[in-house]
Design goal:
278 residues; alpha/beta; TIM Barrel; 2 domains; three-stranded mixed β-sheet; 10 helices; 29% helix; globular; disordered C terminus; binds iron/sulfur cluster
Length: 278
């Protein structure tokens, strides 16, 4: 049961420190998708939710003030950096839809990243935003793995269908393969499957921080004991060999397939984003 609360905020726009976004819009606090590896759990500390489990609360952000789109000019804006702007409650509250409508006629570079097919509800609106891309995040073709790790996000089939519908509607799309689970995510199978509907590909490794590292390692121990040794090597002993080898494989594969792609692998430790299509 998700505890819903309405909260008043000053603005939906927040200046961002992310490498590829100048601003972020998170219409909600919390995320009912409840992915077991969610890095955004740290938001509990900043939003008076320390007693609650991540995924069990959702604050609906409300404001009477306009979003002040003009002040950001042609800067980039990412919808959904610490929530999924198309979580199931968006169906009822339509906050994302309302904020997106304010971007019609602006020069901003708008980007939406989601694990939900609900984004297709807004195709009418998305088509009216001049500079817009939609990314679907997915790390498996196996829906039983998806159910275990992203219990309340859209199924694999629905996400692929959403990518197809968006692409067929003339909207720029990308597949954000994240997080890549060592030994479990089959990057080439996924790329081959969705290639007809994705204009670009981004890859990000599974990055485990202290708070949720034990949770994910016990998930692996319970469900994939055959991979536990390699997870311990990566996440306990900090052995980078697996990622270095995988980043080389992805680079070679994507260059050969002439894909537009970028790697977000341990940003500072392994080679920064490989160049596209060169
Ligand atoms: S969809 Fe994103 S923000 Fe929501 S729980 Fe999953 S990882 Fe976290």
């Amino acid at each position: 049961m998700v505890k819903i609360k309405e909260v008043q905020v000053g603005s939906y726009l927040t200046a961002s420190k992310l490498p590829d976004a100048d601003w972020v819009v998170n219409p909600y606090v919390g995320c009912p998708h409840k992915c077991i590896y969610c890095y955004a759990e740290f938001m509990k500390r900043f939003t008076n939710h320390t007693e609650e489990d991540w995924g069990n609360f959702l604050d609906i952000k409300l404001t009477n003030k306009p979003t002040q789109i003009d002040k950001i000019g042609n800067a980039s804006v990412l919808f959904g950096s610490v929530t999924d702007a198309y979580n199931p409650y968006e169906k009822k509250y339509e906050l994302t839809r309302k904020i997106l409508s304010e971007f019609i006629g602006s020069n901003a570079k708008v980007e939406i990243l989601t694990k939900s097919d609900l984004v297709t509800r807004d195709i009418d609106l998305l088509k009216k935003i001049t500079d817009l891309r939609v990314g679907i995040s997915m790390n498996t073709l196996d829906d039983s793995f998806r159910k275990l790790t992203e219990p309340h996000a859209s199924s694999v089939d629905k996400r692929i269908e959403a990518l197809k519908i968006l692409h067929d509607s003339g909207i720029k799309t990308y597949l954000f393969m994240s997080p890549i689970f060592p030994q479990i995510t089959r990057f080439n199978d996924i790329v081959e499957y969705v290639q007809p509907f994705a204009d670009s590909f981004y890859f990000e490794n599974l990055n485990l921080r202290a708070g949720y590292l034990p949770r994910v390692l016990s998930f692996i121990s319970e469900n994939y004991p055959e991979h536990l040794e390699i997870y311990n090597a990566i996440y306990r002993k900090k052995d980078m060999n697996y990622w270095e080898q995988l980043s080389n494989e992805i680079n070679t594969y994507c260059h050969n397939a002439k894909l537009d792609f970028k790697l977000y692998f341990y940003h500072d430790k392994i080679k920064k984003g490989a160049k596209h299509n060169d």
